[in-house]
Amino acid sequence: MPLVKSGQIVEDRYVRALDDAPIPDGAPVIVQAARFLADAAELVARDAPIGVLWPNDRRVAELAPWLDELALVALHFPKFKDGRAYSQARLLREHYGYRGELRATGDVLRDQFQFLLRAGFDSFEVRKPADALVFAAAAARYSVFYQPSADGRPPALRRRLQHGGSPAVRTREAV
Amino acid sequence: MYLYDDLDRTLVAERVADFRDQVGRRLSGELTEDEFKPLRLMNGVYLQLHAYMLRISIPYGTLSSAQLRKLAHVARTYDRGYGHFTTRTNIQFHWIKLEQLPNAMADLASVGMHGMQTSGNNVRNVTTDQWAGVAPDEIEDPRIYAEVIRQHVTLHPEFSFMPRKFKIAVGSAAHDRAALRIHDLALRLHRNGAGELGFEVMVGGGLGRTPFLAKTIKPFLLKRDVLSYVEAVLRTYNQFGRRDNIWKARIKILVHDLGAEAFAKEVETEWRTIKDGPLALDNAVFAEIAGRFRYPDYVPLDDAPRALAEARRADRAFDVWFGNSVTNHKVPGYCIVTLSLKPEGGTPGDATAEQMDAIADLADRYSFGEIRVGHEQNLTLPHVAQRDLPALWRKLADIGVATPNVNLISDIISCPGLDYCSLANARSIPIAQQIASRFRDRNLARELGRLHINISGCINACGHHHVGHIGILGVEKNGEEFYQITLGGKADEDAKLGTLIGPAVPFAQVADVVEDIAAAYVELRERPDELFIDTVQRTGVEPFKERVYATR
Ligand code: SF4
After folding, report:
1. Does the Cβ of B456 fall within 6 Å of ligand 1?
2. Of these four, A98, B296, B447, B495, which has the most CB atoms within 10 Å of its CB?
3. Pairing state between β A50-54 and A29-32
4. Nearest by Cα to A16 from B199, A175, A3
5. Which residues contact A137 (CB under 8 A, 6 or more apart)?
6. Which residues of A are less than 8 Å from B291 in CB distance?
7. How many Å lie between the centroid of ligand 1 and the Cα of residue B464?
8. What is the position in ligand 1's atom list of the atom closest to the CA of B463?
9. Is the shortest distance between the CB of B462 and ligand 1 below 6 Å?
10. Is residue A154 situated within a structural domain?
């Protein structure tokens, strides 16, 4: 499963220590939510980056005290149709001001790349290799957005107002 | 009429390119049907019993003549020469081939139309009063707010994969013509004690297997906060709505399970964190959107011109139609004309390509190029000069859309049912046709007065049977079609769900049962002008039930 970051396919430097698997010394590691919360103080004190794999049915508010120390939060899409992690991502970015890596895991497909980016994800464990290869094109499919979101791009409403002038005059065609 | 600018057009064009790519990948086998399904659903493409069905969004039911002509073109070129207007004020084409879908969409995009979010678990077409902008009793044109919301939720990065579909309606008149309380989220514009404009917010309405009327969770929300509040509702639903069971996934179940108060509290907490952020709207935003709605250059005209009165005296048929299909307009000398898409023997809501072209021409000539679609599956010409009515009527009659049955017993709202829909248990359209032909006597229908029949072919309730004065629901019993009858439902400002009157009846008896109900009403009503629905409310369903089941 290729990992895409900043638009590039890259090596995943994190090791996953799932369940009770031992945590390797000095290596970046991802652990599950319960384990992280149980030992958070200790885990963030390690001298290597720590990430957490967060389920989509648990409030991200629980992570709030640790967000400055977390290097990575991985949110999960059990099926791409299950869109709970989009809300979690926006809350982390926009409400809690999380700045670390925000990774999409699970059923991550090309037709969702742009939504994911806009919700604040910046790394992607892409399920199909072919999708990872066309990441850049899939992520640039749309150039107009109607709503403000975590990516900070101005929505159409604001763009119109910034351009000023009477919209009625600028509009060419009545449909 | 809302004017698209380059930004809107670019988005629709990008969407067509996106969909073309997805169809290409499906045809080449790169995508499985399973993977393709949610993508096509996001563009309004369903797989039905016989073919793919394409549903095109008609935001808040407003169409330009150019758009209606394009719909006629799509019907003719890619389908079998007709389209079906739905209770969500969209239009469906039932016979489109997958390979041709991208071209049909590109044609529609040329007039700013698309199928985005007419299916899938996202925010659907935002609907409103079909008389928005022209109704004498409205506070402000609700389409301005419907448009603000439409834009905000279009391809929303957070709310494109919610637990289930999400339907929003906006109303702004004393009389609710938008069926607000059967929506997932409804906003009613009104003034508070201080004279400020704002919305009453209702959530958790919906029909289907577990019908609920929406509950008010915020009596007054300032206009500036409308988007942040909608966002908070959607975010709460997206995170906490059930996803384990499709029948319990709509927001109505979440609101019911949590209780409206606890739900409102959850929303309120979220809303407070975002209300003063980028979603707070100032007057410049509303002005910008409002400025792109075009209103006709009405000319000063006299109300009730003499020529009209004379025409009514001279021609009884015209007078009957006038009394039935013409409504007051807020501008003197003008009126609103409803075009019945319920001719006897027809399919409720269907229009042929020829009719659509002709109506577009008539709209250009008589209604400033504008047409509306109402949730009752009729069309409206919203800006007709009263003096033009006799001429317009003749032309409407020529193309079969002047049946004077608007709001009467044969103005039936019906879903497509088993004739098209893969989810159906029973046929709906033939039931509508049988009832309409039973009451073909216009005098009899007029004698019965306002009476809404709604028919659904299964529990999904696309025909809104729960809120029909008479509701008819198709069910299956041992492989046969049966129909449950409810009475007393209504979808107006005083919305109610209908009451089941007894065991389901077989296909062949439905029209008889309706006849019995009509006869019982005539006997029970206190005065000739007591409406059917008022009689049912006064007497309850018992006397109707006795009448219907006495001999069955
Ligand atoms: S009510 Fe049932 S039969 Fe009718 S259109 Fe909806 S899903 Fe199909």
Report:
1. yes
2. A98
3. parallel
4. A3
5. none
6. 166-168
7. 10
8. 1
9. yes
10. no
Distances (CA, A) of B488 to B376, B521, B542: 17, 12, 12
Residue A155 in domain:
no
Residue A161 lies in a domain: no
User: In this structure, are residues A154 and A34 in contact, taking their beta carbons and an 8 Å threshold?
Assistant: no
- Calpha distance B349→B455 (Å, rounded): 13
Residues B25 and B31: beta-carbon distance below 8 Å: yes
The tokens for B204 are 């958790």
Assigned token pair, B395: 């032309």
Ligand 1 atom 2: the closest Cα is on which residue? Answer: B458
Q: Choose one of B87, B419, B427, B458 to mutate for the ligand 1 pocket test, by most ligand atoms within 8 angstroms of C-beta.
A: B458
Rg (CA), chain A: 19
- Residue B397 contacts residue B437 (beta carbons within 8 Å): no
Per DSSP, the three-state class of B100 is helix
Strand partners, A51: A30, A72
What whole-number distance in Å separates Cα of residue A12 and Cα of residue B209?
47
Rounded CA-CA distance B297/B482 in Å is 52
Alpha helix segments (H runs only) across chain A: 33-38, 40-45, 84-90, 113-119, 129-133, 135-139, 156-163, 167-170
Burial of B120 (0-12, 13-18, 19+ CB in 10 A): buried
Chain A residues with CB under 8 Å of a chain B CB are: 80-84, 86-88, 90, 94-95, 109, 111, 114-119, 130, 141-149, 156-157, 159-161, 166-168, 170-175
175 residues of chain A, pLDDT tens digit each: 899 998 899 999 999 999 989 999 999 999 999 999 999 999 999 999 999 999 999 999 999 999 999 999 999 999 999 999 999 999 999 999 999 999 999 999 998 999 999 999 999 999 999 999 999 999 988 888 888 887 778 888 888 887 764 444 333 333 3
Number of domains in chain A: 1
User: Helix, strand, or coil here: A174?
Assistant: coil
Q: Is B473 in the pocket of ligand 1 (CB under 6 A)?
A: no
Sort out which chain B residues have CB atoms less than 8 A from A149's CB and list them: 157-158
Q: Considering CB atoms only, which of B30, B39, B111 is closest to A175?
A: B111
Residues B21-70: tens digit of each pLDDT = 999 999 999 888 888 887 888 888 988 877 889 999 999 999 999 999 99
Q: Report if residue A84 sits inside a domain.
A: yes
Host domain of residue A114: 3-143
State whether the beta carbon of B474 lies less than 6 angstroms from ligand 1.
no
B10, B239, B288 member nearest A84 (Cβ): B239
Report the DSSP beta bridge partners of residue B505: B483
Distances (CA, A) of B376 to B341, B411, B431: 9, 8, 17
CA–CA separation, B520 and B546 (whole Å): 9
Are residues B162 and A115, on separate chains, in Cβ contact within 8 Å?
A: no
Model's pTM, two decimal places?
0.93
Q: Between A80, A168, A175, which is nearest B161 by CB?
A: A80
CATH number, domain of A135, equals 3.20.20.70
Distances (CA, A) of A84 to A116, B152, B159, B161, B243: 12, 19, 9, 8, 10
> Which token pair is A103?
């990774």
Question: How many C-beta atoms surround the C-beta of residue B91 within 10 A?
Answer: 27
Domains of chain B in sequence order: 6-109 (3.90.480.20), 134-291 (3.30.413.10), 304-398 (3.90.480.20), 413-549 (3.30.413.10)
CA distance B205 to chain A (A): 22
Contact between B451 and B530 (Cβ < 8 Å): no
